[in-house]
Amino acid sequence: MSVTSTAALVSSARSVGRAVGAFNVITLEHVEAVIQGAERAGLPVIISISENAIKFHGGQVTPLARAARAAAELATVDVALHLDHVTDLELLYRAADAEFSSAMFDAGAAAYAENVARTCAAVEWAHANGLWLEAELGYVGGKPDAPASAHTKGVRTDPGEAQTFVAQTGVDALAVAVGSSHAMTSQTASLDRELISRLAESVSVPLVLHGSSGVAFDDLSYAASAGMSKINVGTALNVAYTGSVRQALDADRVLVDPRKYLTPARAATADVVAAILAVMS
Question: Which residues are catalytic?
Answer without folding.
Answer: 84
